[in-house]
């Protein structure tokens, strides 16, 4: 919840300086909030699926869904992904190689690439 509030406030600050004025700022904030929700939904699906080898798919899917909302969604996806990978690389001990692979999947999804590129065989169609 705190992350969403921070994203919302930062979005407002960034958008007030934008050329689009208040209406554009509102759209950016709306897209950022929706993008944060998309990222959370992908994370919760990943936890629920608990499927070996599906991590990169859910990274790409969350970023893809968020970026489809527009610039605010893509911004939220980038901020959340970078923060999570920064934290994970320091705390989890999974190493730089895993972080780089996750970030590649994040960028792929944000750029509009099909998340199914990372979909492991046998992952239930629900996801």
From TrEMBL:
Record-level GO cellular component terms: high-density lipoprotein particle
A Pfam family annotated for this UniProt entry: SAA
GO biological process assignments: acute-phase response
Keyword presence, Transmembrane: no
Region (Disordered): 89-127
Region forming the signal peptide: 1-18
Domain of life, per lineage: Eukaryota
Record keywords: Acute phase, HDL, Signal
Family the UniProt entry places it in: Belongs to the SAA family.
Function recorded in the entry: Major acute phase reactant. Apolipoprotein of the HDL complex.
Protein name (record): Serum amyloid A protein
């Amino acid at each position: 919840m705190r992350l969403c509030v921070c994203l919302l406030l930062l979005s407002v600050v960034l958008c007030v300086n934008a050329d689009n004025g208040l209406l554009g700022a509102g759209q950016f904030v709306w897209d950022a909030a929706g993008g944060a929700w998309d990222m959370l939904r992908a994370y919760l699906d990943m936890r629920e699926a608990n499927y070996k080898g599906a991590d990169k798919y859910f990274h790409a899917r969350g970023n893809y869904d968020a970026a489809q909302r527009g610039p605010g969604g893509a911004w939220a996806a980038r901020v959340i992904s970078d923060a999570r990978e920064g934290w994970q690389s320091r705390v989890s001990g999974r190493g730089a190689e895993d972080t780089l692979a996750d970030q590649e999947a994040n960028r792929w999804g944000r750029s509009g690439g099909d998340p199914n590129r990372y979909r492991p065989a046998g992952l239930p169609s629900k996801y």
